[in-house]
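ok so I'm stuck.
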Amino acid sequence: MEHASAVAILDAHGTVTSWSEGARRLTGYPAEEVVGRDARDLLAEDVPPGARCEPAGTALLRHRDGSTVAVSLRGSPLLGAAGAPDGFVVTVESPEERTFRLTGRALQQASLSMSVHDTRQRYLQVNDTARRMLGLPEEDLIGRRLPEIMEEVDANGSGFMRHLRKVVETGLPAHYETFTPASSRLGEHAWTIEMWPVRDAQDEVAAVAVAGFDSTGQHRARQRLGLLNEAAAGIGTTLDVVRTAEELIEFLVPRFADFASVDLLDWVLGAEEPLAVPAEAVALRRVAHSATTEDFPRASVHLGETDAYPSYSAPARALREGRAVLTGPGDPDFDRWMRARDEQAPYNRAYRERVRSTLAVPLMARGTALGVAVAVRAAPQQPHVDDDTVLAEELASRAAVCIDNARRFARERSTALTLQRGLLPKGLPGQAAVEVAHRYLPSVSAAGIGGDWFDVIPLSGSRVALVVGDVVGHGIPSTATMGRLCTAVRTLADVDLPPDELLTHLDDLVTHLVAGDSGDEVAELGATCLYAVYDPVTRSLTLAAAGHPAPALVLPDGTTRLIRMTAGPPLGVGGLPFEATELELPEGSLVALYTDGLVEDRDRDVDHATAELCRALTAPASSLDALCDTVLKAVMPEEPSDDVALLLARTRALGTDQIRTWDIHPDPVHVAATRRSVNEQLSQWGLDEAAFVTELVVSELVTNAIRYGEPPIQLRLIRDSALICEVSDGSSTSPHLRRAHAYDEGGRGLLLVAQLTQRWGSRQTGTGKTIWAEQPLPGRNT
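replied:
not stuck anymore, here's the structure
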């Protein structure tokens, strides 16, 4: 049925005056049956009284055969000479026309911003949404280009006009995203723009259609996700509380705030336990702040200063309530706070008048308040919204965990370092066998303080023990274990065990420490240690290692090498032997003992670093202390990941004029002759004042060796920093002090020796034992 030819003409009263053939075909009524009748008689439904006459709409007609016909009608007025309607022309729309009209209305009423532009980028048509956003009526838009309406369109790099031209030139659709600033006519929004060509009957591009979707929500969500990803990588890069706060500020300014600050509770920066947040004014210390521009007014609170925030202020409320507080002008508490700030820092009054919002977010970690971050926006920026609050809380949560980790690390590091300094030797004990210098540098890595240690232990006979060790791991447990091992080494050294035997006992100790009382499996590694004994009389160096790097040796002629030795297993492995190495050194030789942190690093070749160490040890230096600094500067990594301990020892030797030795015949009658020989030697050394005590000591020790020991028996006097008397025999039985009773004939000899001398003891030798006693030289302080 051809609806387009269905036409009727009505007069001003609604009477049909003309009826087309198309109308007959549509309704079945011929013209003679319709003309002159009221048009309402043709309707299949009653018209309510007072109904308005619309220019277009749907109607239900009664067909001549009694059926009904639904049609879309459009009426156009027929104007008379006076300009008033004399009648109406009523036509029936075809389905295609109706569909086209509805489609046009759909585009006109779409929630998207839609427009059509000619090939010269001028507006041809805009829908209601675009017109509302631009804030102009349609007649002010048609025929104009967008830059004539919004001058900033291409100034901000959106490329709107460029894309329009590209679609006309290429005939291809375009898709891009853009952002309009708050100062633009559209306001601060993100847009997803679709453009496509509109072609005419000749398939030529006649116009460009544009649809703009407001993607601000998605844009902000992507921004927030991207910012959080950046924060995960950029906040907490160091275990430093202040630096972590600065990294948070770097993320907030300028992308999130014009000004931002981080204030922490005082205990966070110290070693104290967490304190409760006071209910009234809160004292906070400023650790970081920043602003968007260099001409920003100086901060009211300087870095490092403490400021009291009143209980009604946003930072105090955020800390007390444990949630973000968003406030701004118009809030009584905010206005009150600003007035207080104006009194405190009047030079910032002009800036405060421009503040649009203040967002205070507590820094909470493990349920504990550490401080507060404050973000401020000022005009012309828009104030913070709820989405900003969510983002700020996520950033603050990340930063708070990092700050708390840094605080806990600093506290543990401080504790471990204090413990370690208390265990390491503060001043090396007096001895004449070697000249020593040392350095200890704790690690600054996130792993914490290690378990490196060193020691210099005076032994009998002017000998000295040199020790370096390294406990596997970091932190307080390693430091505590280091202290136990350091004490154990001193105890075993006092027994005067040879280096290999001492390490065997130390290995047993580490095995017990690791296994504990539960009988757990022994750890794969426990600790490493190097123990060396130098004798200035024989100029011999005896050393043994448990998984520790071999020391470097520099001879007086400048020859440098690592000492060849067999490095046994690390302490704690158990069941494997240790082997001692002995070598004779010229006087003035330099021995360098160190821990692996000096030469080992994941990015370094150990052999190359060791060669650098040997070269550095030959560098000219005014003293051993200066040489220590030279070695560290030349060899140590720029950022060592482990502790570094370095112990330098330059050997000395006792001359033959400082030592006198006698072979003793195992007969008590020769004791008197021995005493006379000793007195003569003391006279030659100018030590007559020591003759009385020395004679008693020699008499007692030699007599005991003859009575209870076994040949061969030997007496040796050493004049060093002290006067040393040594008596050796072939028996391995060690003497011990005992309490003598009133009627006992003996038992008082060693007690007498202990009372008269500075110290005494015994040590095992390869052929038996040696009993020794030391007394200060006359005229020297004990």
